[in-house]
Amino acid sequence: MSFQGLQAKYNRLHGESAAWKLLRADNSPHILAFISDLFAEESEVPFGRARIRLDAEINRLRELGLWQTETAANTYLNQWIASGWLRELDDSLTKTDASETALRFCRNLDERTSGTTASHLRIVQEAVRELAVAISPNVDERVTLLEHKKAELEREIADLRAGVVKELSEQQQRERIREVYQLASVLTGDFRRVEDEIRLRIPDQG
Known about the structure:
By secondary structure, the protein is mostly helical. It has helices spanning about 5-15, 20-25, 30-40, 45-65, 75-80, 95-110, 115-135, 140-160, 170-200; strands spanning about 45, 85-90, 90-95.
């Protein structure tokens, strides 16, 4: 795509993307922090409970001199719903694809460590091996690749039967957990994006 085409695409996203609007909102850090904390342990929160928690946070920030407006928590929640950063259904709130995308972007900025790089490298290596088997037109080559994979599995089984149990270090465990969480977040974001698209097409069911 040409420079002009890319510029037009990003200009459109800059104007239309709810996630981009959230990231560049004046109080974006506060909004992201509240949404992340609100849904840290559950995917759906009653509107009333969210209002009480936001009201408490706003009062605390006002006491610290970090929040200047007198706008009520209820008003902020309704504004965030209207902006597409929260979804209200049956008097309960959930995250939207836009808020999940913004939060995932921030997490990615914060997790640029050698650990995540190692995890990603492992995923890429496994994907390359699977792709090599899938696209090779040579039957013998496919068999050889699968035999290598089979040999690795047989070595692991033999080690276990011999009592050799290779345990992951705490760092490796954290990497694997983070890896699973990131993949789950992507899938959740995909589901939310589909749901948002359906709601846009059928507004009366939103």
